[in-house]
Amino acid sequence: GAVVSxxxxxxxxxxxxxxxxxxxxxxxxxxxxxxxxxxxxxSLMLMATSNEGSKATYEQGVEKDKFLINHASLTLxxxxxxxxxxxxxxxxxxxxxxxxxxxxxxxxxxxxxLTVL
Amino acid sequence: AQSVTQPDIHITVSEGASLELRCNxxxxxxxxxxxxxxxxxQGLQLLLKYxxxxxxxxxxxxxxxxxxxxxxxxxxxxxxVHWSDAAEYFCAVGYMEYGNKLVFGAGTILRVKS
Lengths: 117, 114
Prior knowledge:
The complex is a heterodimer of chains A (117) and B (114). Chain A is mostly beta strands and 117 residues long.
């Protein structure tokens, strides 16, 4: 149980285009989903917290107009990188909060490798 | 600010040897504690978690971790390492006042030599 999928696993795009990444909780409903960015040989950096039916909460320094997040259902959140540039190339990982007694446990997707040419 | 420290960037152990990965956190109250493992190019897999109760928690793949409040630590252990354990390990801490958000340590890369 507690499986999270991401699609696509890899994407290569030209500079200036937009890319959408999907995150799905396959066997549970997640009120909250999270989007992280991971640079090579570094830890995960939280970009935003996505709550179903409401606007995402972005971390300081993350451009909300560039990284559009939609959480339209309890099993799907999407991250759209708008007008992508080479510096947006990174590994993007989502997680979904699995509700437990004390707090949600985050289960992670397999990640999406974005390369912007 | 809340922080999580994994002091060892790289650790190399021989197959069959024991393993301990260190994790320290800064916080006054009891946080929620997690260990995740990441293989190259993959997402994170939950190894174990601590919310409350018994301070020694068992996880998957033969891993365990012990919460020590006095030392603000949550070290990960395995009595006998297998070559397939080679990966990067992340300690993460959740704080009540920040909802379900996690703060991650920098990670420890484990190499297993045969």
